[in-house]
Design goal:
homotrimer, 238 residues, alpha+beta, Alpha-Beta Plaits, 2 domains, six-stranded antiparallel beta sheet, 33% helix, bacterial microcompartment (chains A, B, C)
Amino acid sequence: MDNFLNSTSVVPEFVGASQIGDTIGMCIPSVDAILLDHLHVSKKFTVLGVLSSRTGAGPQIMAMDEAVKATNTEVIDVEWPRDTKGGAGHGVLLLIGGYDPSDVRSAIQVALDNLSRTFGDVYNSAAGHLELQFTARAAGAVHMAFGAPEGKAYGLICGAPSGIGVVMADTAIKTAGVDVLSFASPSHGTSFSNEGTVHISGDSGAVRQAVIAGREVGLKLLAQLGEKPVNDFPSYIR
Amino acid sequence: MDNFLNSTSVVPEFVGASQIGDTIGMCIPSVDAILLDHLHVSKKFTVLGVLSSRTGAGPQIMAMDEAVKATNTEVIDVEWPRDTKGGAGHGVLLLIGGYDPSDVRSAIQVALDNLSRTFGDVYNSAAGHLELQFTARAAGAVHMAFGAPEGKAYGLICGAPSGIGVVMADTAIKTAGVDVLSFASPSHGTSFSNEGTVHISGDSGAVRQAVIAGREVGLKLLAQLGEKPVNDFPSYIR
Amino acid sequence: MDNFLNSTSVVPEFVGASQIGDTIGMCIPSVDAILLDHLHVSKKFTVLGVLSSRTGAGPQIMAMDEAVKATNTEVIDVEWPRDTKGGAGHGVLLLIGGYDPSDVRSAIQVALDNLSRTFGDVYNSAAGHLELQFTARAAGAVHMAFGAPEGKAYGLICGAPSGIGVVMADTAIKTAGVDVLSFASPSHGTSFSNEGTVHISGDSGAVRQAVIAGREVGLKLLAQLGEKPVNDFPSYIR
């Protein structure tokens, strides 16, 4: 499972697509002014990048975080469909803006290329899923999506069904001294997904330690609902 | 695939059902007054029609638009479940009111009969879907559901995952001079569906041209996520 | 289909799990104070119980209602993911509080044990589902979740797709003199589920009669969308 098409010949806006999360990347070099007025963007750019998926918000946001670090682009909208094709979580719609179409296309491509890494700590079973994310230095995508302070370490600890996320959060926070940014649950801070997610920030070592501790208890709990959860790509958080 | 049951012998309220979108039509000749107080209707009628589906809001709304044109009935509620049985879109709950049960039953039947037409430009693939709708003259259902001016042409251009809808909207609006009513996206104007949808109004020829242009780019983009999207019924927008 | 694991050896927080609705029960003996501040609980307890499912909110809430009657615990949060693994309804996240971990573990276990009863009047087909619930004496879970007066009889009458619930509600209310607490529909009082649900209260005999009447018409209507709906466990409402 990997990027299966990167043809740019279909339509000029197409950048690339990936089977991972059914993710498609596009670039509009000069967006229609009336459409731009109807979009919910934090800042108006005429060069627009679009990253859109059925499954996974966190992985695409983390992938985009690397992309905006590497290019002269900004995340201007993060939207949260309740999707995952019948699963318990979200898809995502990410809009980015830039001054040059080649920058924006490049950012979208970087994000697509990062998906096999950022899906590394997504663990699925028939009953639910876990998601863990970590970055030593949060940038604009993680800031806009999760309220994380830019430049500091950030961690995401998520379990579904959502109650598993409550216990994962408790274990994670008790493990290391970290700042709790928020706890998202089905009726608060999600699009009614069945996820419990704690967002943490702080010292890089502490955040990583907390994420790993949350993962450990989450894997054991989710396994109680049947099969052992498995990741489709190698774990990147060690 | 078509209407498989139109028996009225089951319960008096039953009007008809269709496999298309798992749609059921009913009529309550004299609704309980206390229940009516608890419903969220724009106008209180005692004769109530109900059209309810698992998959597809747009097609049922367009079908009901024809039904209210043909009968002495009014749409009094449009509700948007996040459904499609694991897909990226909505189902719908439509309530209509009338003065005579036979009018209301007739309206519900007209709507059910129109579904094979209004599903004609719904294109599905494993990764997502597209929906296109067009009417030369919007009536009460389209007005209440989408804010379209009655009596004018109306078009709906929708893609899922939602980012595809952004590019479809941009292409459509650039193609012809139309009024943009709104752009609905996962976190704005939907029930967290994974759809990007532009609603347009204006001159009949221009709206039709814009819809067709949006469809063309949408079919190419969605095909990049794997298989070619297909419609289950013949396209009606030419 | 029944509880398949009740091992407590996995992690200390684990109480039990059930295949029924993919439901997991846990207990945190001393919740982290910062996490507690970020949870949305009506009252702060340090001993926390968690019941979390992918499918079914009503059955878990009714099961928890029995559990809080039987133990010194309180329901402090009810949250509504839009789930059921691609179905038309909700999952649930229930948090309870207590003064003693053994009380809380016992309450969670009682709730898990009640699931095969409270799923008795959940009827599924490929097109949708029905749910009926009844208690002669509502307690804290039903009160917090549905606004039912404690100590009085309570009934829940739900159909999906949601239009079926409208007709079920009309029939039920006309059958017996009951108080209508609320009518929940896709855009009002649900997490965009495709359910129409009337919540009723009053005299025990009247509530039961109304629930049974709603069930009868619901079974006939849902059957019109294809196959006869079936329950996985014996009906408990007679």
